[in-house]
Amino acid sequence: MMKYASNIEQISAETDNTATRAHRRKKRHLARKRFRAALFLTALAGIAIIVFAFVIVSTSDSAITFESGNLKFQIVTDNDNESTSAAQVVGYVKNKSNSPPHIEIPASVDFEEGNDGKTNYTIVAVNGLKGFDYVDLSACDEVTQINLPDQPIRYKGLFLMESTDTNAEKTESQLIVNGTYEAEDSDITTIPAELFGRTVEIDAQYKTTIIQNLNALLNSAEKSKEPLEHYNALSEELARQLTFFGDIDSSFAKQIEGIQADAETELTYYRALSEIEAGTSKKTLDAPYINQRARYPTGCESVSAVMALQYIGIDISVDTFIDEYLALGNAPHMDESGRYVGVSPWKAFPGNPYTKSGWGCFAPVIKDACDKILDPKRYEAEIIYEATVDELCARYIQNDIPVIFWATMGMAAPHPGTSWVDEDTGEQIEWVIPMHCLLLVGYDADYYYFNDPQKSKMYKYRKSVVKTAYEGMFEQAVVIKPVSE
């Protein structure tokens, strides 16, 4: 019994010792875990400090970049690496939705800088954009630098593209104007010589298109039923185009000026014609006068031509004109076969203008004679067919050019006369009588004024009888006018 109790005590003591050792091992294990955790936290804190330090250094060594809308911006720093109140566009932020076909760049952008609140930055440069139908820089008046190669640009009514002109001496980047568009907020009346720090030029093909379009407008105005209205509109458009393009391209401006001169000539003409037809204007020219009766009984065409030549300062007599320059031919006569033949009055004067048996000639003969006399660098003779008398007055009298004019003697009603056969071609010639040629020198509300070789200087005829006589003589006239430059 005693031995059994002793064994129990021994077992109990051993159990106590085992528990004590287990407790101690647990304490040591917990201590090691706490040490490792403390070591990990210390290392993590160290890493955080290093990362934080790196961020601080990175921020201090480079410009701040931020996003607003779909654009990426960068704050511009100065030479001391300090931020300014300016920013530049450096890219586009893509998202899951499709990119817009075009993008508008604002004049400025807001950026919230922590506790300092929002700061507004002016956009001064635009870079890193491509693939859009166009980039609209209309709001960017403060932009002084762009880098948008192969990217169409819009600016206040202008389509632009960057272009680099490279030669042996230098490489210069330019902006090329290759189109225009309607812009409600545009205040541009002339293309600036520089934009965004680049020189501006006009695309060669675009200039060709503009000239073609302006000439088309000129032609359409000529064919219009309301030409005065169309020429007024064209004149205003040409003045706008000249102002818009003229300052940066002088050679292109000269092309526009040429069309403008033509348009102004036509505008002046139609204004004058409108007044003449309304009977609200009058004008006469003081041309030299020569009477034909004494020496040139059938030489009215030569006399009228010499009056026109003397008017522009050419010293020539009627005798010299007839003897040296006027083409003469056979008067109508019976040939061996019994035909009545002679020269065509459209080719030469039939007979002799010094005699009463002479006939007369038409506009081509007088033009050819004048061409032999005129200095082609200064003057030219021109035939006009089928113009009305009012149109002749508006086009030529209004511009101080008298008109060699075919009508009838005393403005009598024209009627058929003798006919004959052209001796060269066999063509039938229908002569109209009483044929006459005069120098038209003026008009007023009721009359046309002529230097009439058979009557006197500044002889007036009522408009109605002049129109009838002129129409009966094939509506033909010749003018001697300055050569256009």
Instruction: Please report the total strand number as a whole number.
Output: 26
- Report on the biggest sheet: 7 strands, mixed
CATH T-level fold name of the largest domain: Cathepsin B, Chain A
In CATH terms, the superfamily of the largest domain is Cysteine proteinases
Strand content: 25-35%
What gap, in angstroms, lies between the N and C termini? 153 Å
Shape call: rod-shaped
Oligomeric state of shown chains: single chain
Structure in words:
- By secondary structure, the protein is of the alpha/beta class.
- The protein folds into 4 domains: 26-54; 66-202, no CATH class; 206-278, no CATH class; 283-482, Cathepsin B, Chain A.
- It is built from 9 helices and 26 strands.
- The strands form 5 sheets. The protein has a 7-stranded mixed sheet with strand order 4-7-9-10-11-13-12. Strands 14, 19, 20, 23, 24, 25 and 26 form a 7-stranded antiparallel sheet that branches.
- α2 (204-223) packs antiparallel against α3 (227-245), α2 runs parallel beside α4 and α4 (250-278) packs across α8 (389-395).
